Amino acid sequence: QLQASGGGLVQAGESLTLSCAASGFTKPYYTIGWFRQFPGQERKGVAFIHSTNVTTYYTDAAQGRATISMSRDNAKTTVDLKMNNMKPEDTAVYYCAVEELNWPLTVLATAPGMYEWWGQGTLVTVSS
Length: 128
Known about the structure:
This protein is mainly β. 0% of the residues lie in helices and 53% in strands. It has strands at residues 2-5, 8-11, 16-22, 29-37, 44-50, 56-58, 66-73, 76-83, 92-101, 117-118, 122-127. The strands form two sheets. Strands 2, 4, 5, 6, 9, 10 and 11 form a seven-stranded mixed sheet that branches. The chain has a four-stranded antiparallel sheet with strand order 1-3-8-7, with no helix packed on it. Strand 7 (66-73) and strand 8 (76-83) form a beta hairpin. The protein is globular.
């Protein structure tokens, strides 16, 4: 199960933290990614983190402006994506997704098709 939260209306230049609560994993390793989707376009990756909590990856959309982090509480994993200096062009629906694996990775998948579970999406609107 995936539950994304934290979207809403922010002013340009402000920071925003999105949270993804995940549970019910069936494999020992997983990658959780944040994607966003603009109207009429396909989902594109923003940032990714592996369950070893060591490997992360940021796409150009997030590079230098975002931090992805993971925490665990019993069977629930929470992945936060903090984005700084938000811009109107960051306005999109943000989704978190999970890729489950039987082995750990050092190179993370970024294609949406590699991810099996998807949260419901949370709308982020950045006003100028």
